[in-house]
Structures are given as C-alpha cells and as structure tokens.
Amino acid sequence: MHAWIDQALWCLDRRQAAVLVTVAWVQGSAPREAGAKMLVSAGHQWLTIGGGHLEWKAAESARARLRADDGPDRWIEALPLGPALGQCCGGMVHLLFERLRESDRGWLEAVRAGLQSPAGRVREVRLGGDGAAPCVRVSEPDAAAPGGIDADAGRLLRPGPGQGCLTLRETIRPDPLHVVIFGAGHVGQALVHILGTLPCRVTWVDARDELFPGTVPANVSIEATDTPEAVIDEAPPDSCFLIMTHDHALDQRLCEQLLRRDDVAYFGLIGSQTKRRKFEHRFQARGIPPERYARIVCPIGEPGIEGKQPAVIAVAVAAQLLRLRSERERLAGAQARTEAPAH
After folding, report:
1. Range 259-262 contact pairs with CB under 8 angstroms and sequence separation of 24 or more
2. Cross-strand bridge partners of residue 74
3. pLDDT tens-digit series, residues 168-178
4. Which residues pair with residue 199 across a beta bridge?
5. What is the dihedral of CA 223, 319, 38, 330, to 10 degrees?
6. pLDDT band at 154, cuts 50/70/90?
7. Torsion angle (degrees, nearest 10) of CA 202, 208, 209, 210
8. Three-state SS annotation for the chain
9. What is the pLDDT, as a whole number, of residue 80?
10. For residues 164 and 132, is the Cβ–Cβ distance under 8 A?
11. Domain 178-327: which topology?
C-alpha cells in the first residue's frame, strides 16, 4: 500500500510538519516487514509500523525532532525489541526517520508518478558519509545504482571503510494484485470497503453511476460504463475478476466475455450452486468446452466462512483474494531464488 505518498503530500500542502518513518531493515522477528511506513506530526499519526512500544517509541523520537527542529533531517535508529522495548518479538528493527520539507515534494511526486508503471520506481536514500549531505534519489528500476540490491521492501546497505554513504534502497511499485469488480450493489459496496484497506488495486464497474459513493479509497478507480465488456478486454494480465451485478443475463454475458481470456488469475461469480449449474448448462448449449468454465469460482469466498450478509460475503472473498496473493508471492519468491546466479 502506498497511502503514505498522498498523506505526505497532504501534509506538505498544508505546511504541516511531519516525519516519515520507514522500517528499513529487520533482523529476526518483528511486528512489521521492511518497507512498512507511518507518518507522524505533532498531533497526529497515520498508518502503522506494527503498534505497541516500538511504534510509541518511534512516534516519540519523531516528535522530539519536530519540537527541536534541529539535527539532521534523516537518521537511523536501531531498536532491539526484547531488551529495549519489552516486546516478545525479540528481533532488531532499524528505523529510518525523514523530516519532510517542501524540498521533498519532488521525489514524492516522482514516486507517485512512477506507480503508473508496473515497474514502479527505485527510491534511494543516502544518509551522508565523507562529508556528503543526505539526499534522496528516484530512478527507474533498471537505472538503479550498480552494486546495490533491489530490495522490494527496503534494506539498509552498509558501506565498508571508505566506501561512502549508508544507504537505503527500496523498489516502490504498484501492488500486483489487480481486482476488477462488476456490480455496485450491496456486496460490491461491502467488498470495496474492505479492499480499500488492503494491498491491491481495484477497478469498480457499473452502469448505474448513482450507486457509487462520493469518495472511494485511493486504490479504487470507478468505471461508470454501459459497455463493461470493454473493461474485461482492457484489464492487464493476471487480473482477478468478480462478477456480481444485479442482472443474471448481464452476469452471463460478462462470463462469456471473460472466458475468452486465458490469462486470468481469479474468476469469481456471485451466486449459489444452482446458479452455477444453470450457467454451465447455458455455456454447454453455446458450445463452450467444460474446461473453460470449470475455472469459475461459484459460490465465491473462502470455504468455511458461511453467511449471506453482504459484509460476510465480502470478508470471505477478501480472504480468498489474499490467499491467492500470498500464494503468488511465495511462487515468485521461489522462482527468483531458483533463477538467482550462484556466487
């Protein structure tokens, strides 16, 4: 999730002093992964790096710097969770603190613009060394400085003697889980409410423009269209699709359009087993091979979560999508380790 970018720019727009806190490096067990971020101002806090004493200590350090407004704008603190903070995780967390100023607007906007590309952007934070001032550099992933590592979540690069700056390099890219939802009814509303808080991108489709709320989460885009089939054709590969409109005939039409694609990560259709059987008979009558429609998930939702209330269905579907996301991440990680060159 990249809500921290818009929140940081919001603070700059209002001249509200704030500190960006990033989990830069984790050793052992910790509440959050490297790359997790939060923003701290004198009176507010946004997002989380794991809660508990760690987060309280980080907010205290950030606010102390805001009150004094002296010292470096960027610094690292290493916090042992067990001895120092009394947390059971027992690991070591290195936090990067960045006092944001108007001069930071450029790199924030560059990172936000980079999220329009699947590759995203590399953000490199140099913390000084050999008399150099701290700086932030944003580049395309293939233009990253040589000799570093591409740490998707964030990682400290520790220089050897005479090798310059302590550096954090992180790749910030849009979440690979793209969900396309057809239908702005009760279940669609409940599902978008949940997905708006999760690491994914959502395209929400319905012809009935009046059903969409006035505001939606930052990771949700609305398509008010009477040609929803075009959204199917334009969606990127490996997208997840959920068909849950108010009209069974429209559901069937969208299903048939979606069955033409072979690059779909998830294909969910709201309804019962009875609806599934009826649709299968119709597909068969149209000459669609059974192996094409066998991949449709209907009923939708993680097995074992029962209930017909919109919120319950939404939770079950969100759980199913998150499981899919985790499986894809594990597969990608295993593939990367297999393809990594031997040293």
Report:
1. 259/283, 259/288, 259/292, 259/293, 261/232
2. 98
3. 888 898 888 99
4. none
5. -100
6. very low
7. -120
8. CCHHHHHHHHHHHCCCCEEEEEEEEEECCCCCCCCCEEEEECCCEEECCCCHHHHHHHHHHHHHHHHHCCCCCEEEEEEECCCCCCCCCCCEEEEEEEEECHHHHHHHHHHHHHCCCCCCEEEEEECCECCECCEEEEECHHHCCCCCCCCCCCEEECCCCCCCCCEEEEEECCCCCEEEEECCCHHHHHHHHHHCCCCCEEEEEECCHHHCCCCCCCCEEEEECCCHHHHHHHCCCCCEEEECCCCHHHHHHHHHHHCCCCCCCEEEECCCHHHHHHHHHHHHHCCCCHHHHCCCECCCCCCCCCCCCHHHHHHHHHHHHHHHHHHHHHHHHHHHHHHCCCC
9. 84
10. yes
11. Rossmann fold (3.40.50)
Chain mean position to CA 290: 35
User: How much is the pTM?
Assistant: 0.75
Above 90 in pLDDT, residue 192? Answer: yes
For residue 243, which phi and psi values (nearest 5 degrees)?
Answer: -105, 115
Question: Span 147-172, mean pLDDT?
Answer: 59
Tokens coding 95:
């936090």
Burial class (CB in 10 A: 0-12, 13-18, 19+), 268: buried
Q: How far is CA 300 from the centre of its chain?
A: 23
Alpha-carbon distance of 42 to 161, in angstroms, equals: 38
Annotated domain spans of the chain:
3-104, 106-172, 178-327
Site of tokens 């889980």: 177
110 vs 26 pLDDT, higher one: 110
Phi-psi category of residue 35: left, alpha or beta, with phi > 0 → left and psi -120 to 50 → alpha: left
